[in-house]
Design brief:
The chain has about 250 residues and is an alpha+beta fold. It contains 7 helices and 13 strands.
């Protein structure tokens, strides 16, 4: 009988292998340099997680994720399978090649101390790993490892978080989805990934939401000419062309 990894690949034909797995606890932060041609699969193990994420070019840290361009060139307000994630240089950091959640936010920004203070004020000195981390500070901790700071923050992605509007047009965080939803990214260029598992800024849960996320890393299959991310729109074709120019001669 096929093992669980082999079975999972049948649902993601663009994945060649998944070679590493870890779990990031809630209220945590993490970073990693992903190579061109690798994949990252995120799994919301509880159905209530939020993963804030930013991208940077490790060879030129001034190049980073551009949320407005990622949305406007693909005529979308949300991120899901078939979308590409653009840099501010018109290149594609990553493509979304799998998504069972269906709706991810990249317009509502990040949680700050003012958002989490509603659950009480706890700090690391007094509460250790039970303190109430916020996304803004979590990003800054990881960015400092690479010589980056507050001036280098950009509008981030919030994986597994869906926003909706009420009758008055007010944006709200949609109810949680079922557990084990996944989103899979294929990296189209070397990318520094910065992430946290802190609450979405619109989360109104009674208690501080502390939900872990599973991360699997591996290798992608070679992109085909009929790849859904490539063919989604003309702008994506131009983005992949920009990547090809960037990698020329390497």
């Amino acid at each position: 009988m096929p093992n669980s990894t082999e079975a999972s690949h049948r649902n993601h034909p663009s994945i060649r292998s998944l070679d590493y797995s870890t779990e990031i606890p809630g209220a945590s932060h993490w970073s990693l340099r992903m190579r061109k041609g690798t994949v990252m699969r995120l799994t919301d193990t509880t159905g209530s997680a939020n993963v804030g994420m930013l991208f940077y070019n490790p060879e030129n840290l001034l190049e980073r994720y551009n949320a407005p361009d990622s949305l406007k060139c693909q005529h979308s307000f949300k991120l899901t399978q078939g979308h590409c994630l653009y840099s501010d240089m018109g290149r594609i950091f990553a493509s979304i090649i799998g998504d069972t959640h269906g709706w991810h936010d990249t317009v509502c920004g990040n949680s700050h101390a003012s958002h989490v203070n509603r659950w009480g004020i706890r700090d690391y000195q007094g509460d250790r790993n039970e303190w109430l981390q916020n996304g803004h500070d979590a990003f800054l901790i990881e960015l400092a490892k690479y010589g980056l700071g507050q001036a280098d923050l950009a509008a981030n992605i919030n994986w597994f978080s869906q926003v909706q509007t009420d009758e008055a047009g007010t944006m709200l965080l949609a109810p949680s989805k079922e557990a084990e939803t996944q989103v899979t990214l294929r990296f189209e260029m070397d990318t520094l990934v910065i992430l946290h598992t802190c609450p979405h800024p619109m989360n109104q849960a009674e208690n501080y939401p502390r939900h872990s996320v599973k991360i699997e890393l591996g290798e992608a299959e070679t992109m085909s000419d009929d790849d859904a991310c490539l063919t989604a729109c003309d702008e994506n074709r131009r983005g992949f062309h920009n990547n090809a120019l960037y990698h020329l001669g390497r």
